């Protein structure tokens, strides 16, 4: 849900920026027209807009989005200062105005007069600054009241670490919650200090806590090897890393610098970055999920009735699954097994046909007759449309695993699959599902994350249809 809200806010923000540009263009156009040929108030607001103007406006919208994206105005500014953001806005609007001047000169665009460019630059800059100020105020109020929080673990127990922790906790508008500290040696903590463990316990701590960010506050020279191992573990699992020091070599993660008050921090992200493509992914999820829900609603009703009549027990099977950054959520499926099947699993462990921590049996004795058909056709997965609408899942992404399976992971690099929203389908589903080994399954998830594009999601969705029809690998 937190990821969904953040991406939804980012999408609205981008849309609002385009609206700001359109308003600035209209005002600049009308003022320039009025400046060269004074109009009445009525003519000012109702003068005709030609088709060529609309085409020009669309081109400007695309340029505007590219500029704001390149000046990193859509990345998180949680730890950034207002002044730096305002400087970046002025840079973007100034470059945009300069491009319009150059385009007007080379293409002889008469509408791009000096007065028009000046009015456009002023109005776009002012409106963009105002919109950013309003958004900052809304986000600040939301975080003060406990919304959109980020869970942080601080590595190091020196005065610099304590000072940074006090600062982010005092500034509630930043939306950070310090879970505790990690140091080289675990010791009895001071009053008000929560020690989670030593640096040797980092893998276990990452497995057992919801952690959005790790802040490294250890001296690099003295603890280089320890810090390097921590960075590698966090990188493997897609956890954001912030440094109060210098950058380390990373294989996957990308870094950026942030500043807050007197602290200069370095952020390393190995999970996917925010972009227009990820917002588009969420928009597609919502649109397709709503459409699917309408189309399959008769099938949902018929299936629910059939399950109720065929065997005793609830229609829907709900189970805790491990989701984004190891947050637990309730996954919904049509019940395909006898009531209380989870309690019987322990006695069937010796029959497990999958390698690794995953439990699958081709002819599971707990599965009902109707359940086998529902699994073969993947109809049992349809209630997960509601998980997509809620924001716990996406249509495409690594499959969410039960807590039991997650606790059986023995390789930390495999846990990076939790750095993105889980999905109903992914590469594994179209490549044979249970006919694929566990290690290959994890590698396919890493391949999906590292090479993700919006077009790859659409391709997976299209390939899922024949895979479901064939029922390949389904149990």
Write the layout of secondary structure elements.
Elements (H helix, E strand, L loop, with lengths): L1 H35 L4 H6 L4 H20 L11 H25 L7 H31 L5 E6 L3 H12 L5 E8 L11 E4 L3 H7 L4 E4 L7 H13 L3 E4 L10 E7 L2 E7 L6 H35 L5 E7 L5 E7 L6 H4 L24 H9 L6 H7 L3 E3 L4 E2 H4 L16 E3 L1 H4 L7 H13 L3 H17 L5
Parallel strand pairs: 1-2, 1-4, 2-3, 4-5, 10-12
Antiparallel strand pairs: 5-7, 6-7, 8-9, 8-11
Description:
- This protein has 475 residues and is of the alpha/beta class.
- It has helices at residues 2-36, 41-46, 51-70, 82-106, 114-144, 159-170, 202-208, 224-236, 276-310, 341-344, 369-377, 384-390, 403-406, 427-430, 438-450, 454-470; strands at residues 150-155, 176-183, 195-198, 213-216, 240-243, 254-260, 263-269, 316-322, 328-334, 394-396, 401-402, 423-425.
- The strands form 3 sheets. It has a 7-stranded mixed β-sheet, sandwiched between helices. The protein has a 3-stranded antiparallel β-sheet with strand order 9-8-11. Strands 10-12 form a two-stranded parallel ribbon.
- Strand 6 and strand 7 form a beta hairpin.
- It is globular.
- The model is unreliable at 39-52 (pLDDT under 50).
